[in-house]
Design brief:
238 residues, alpha/beta, Rossmann fold, 2 domains, 5-stranded parallel sheet
Length: 238
């Protein structure tokens, strides 16, 4: 499975939206911030870009409502082949689709209407998580409860078996493993992992659930990432 690029400024962003006015506005704003852009108006066109031999995007902005395919389906198909970060573009009344998109591997979502400044901030935050500085930490190798996270190679193994994680899942696991036993609230994880404050708790809850499906022997009875009721989550080695 391939991963996305590691730059922030100069990164290539694939914008997938059939709304020409919105797509052009987003493209102008991103290019004004020194990003490169690719555009697609349909899900199939986006998948063609991802399957092509040309310049691959470092991040995908993916609208949920597309004329040919559901954005959630496009997200799922991209995630089967690539770990490139994905930000879903959604309407306010699409909460179920937002959660489904996160469950299928999207890293984040932004709700329409949004300001160009907010979008750029969100793009930069996601790219920072996957950039060359994302792995910098006092400990380069984290181990516990049968989980091994190598911050140099960005590889994760559970009981000796390699597992694929999205960049956001890897960053979330890193934060939890760096302080085993410490309980992190959803707000703390939003600020530490996503660089947001007072955002949507569904973002944390869904990513925790996805991470459990990757590293737990039985995700319905987690033994590594525990929920501390009314407080948050912790990684335990006990």
């Amino acid at each position: 499975m391939v991963s996305g690029g590691s730059r922030v400024r100069g990164a290539t962003i694939l914008i997938v939206d059939d709304d020409e006015m919105l797509r052009d506005a987003v493209q102008r704003k991103l290019e004004g911030e020194q990003f490169r852009t690719l555009t697609a108006t349909t899900g199939r066109e986006a998948l063609s870009v991802m399957d092509g031999a040309g310049n691959q995007p470092d991040l995908v902005l993916l609208d949920i409502m597309l004329p040919d395919l559901e954005g959630t389906s496009v997200c799922q198909q991209i995630r089967q082949k690539s770990l490139v970060p994905i930000i879903m573009l959604t309407a306010r009344n699409e909460e179920a689709d937002r959660i489904l998109g996160l469950e299928l591997g999207a890293d984040d979502y932004i709700t329409k209407p949004f300001s160009p400044r907010e979008l750029v901030a969100r793009v930069k935050a996601v790219l920072r998580r996957v950039g060359p500085d994302a792995a910098l930490a006092p400990k380069r190798l984290l181990e516990g409860a049968g989980v091994r996270l190598d911050l140099d190679t960005r590889e994760v193994a559970v009981n000796g078996i390699s597992v694929d994680l999205t960049p956001t899942q890897m960053r979330l696991l890193q934060v939890l493993m760096e302080q085993p036993g410490r309980v992190f609230s959803s707000d703390e994880l939003l600020e530490t992992v996503w660089d947001y404050r007072q955002y949507d708790p569904h973002l944390v809850e869904t990513h925790i659930s996805n991470l459990r499906t990757r590293i737990e022997d039985n995700p319905k009875d987690p033994q590594r990432i525990l929920t501390v009721r009314s407080f948050g989550y912790k990684f335990t080695t006990e």
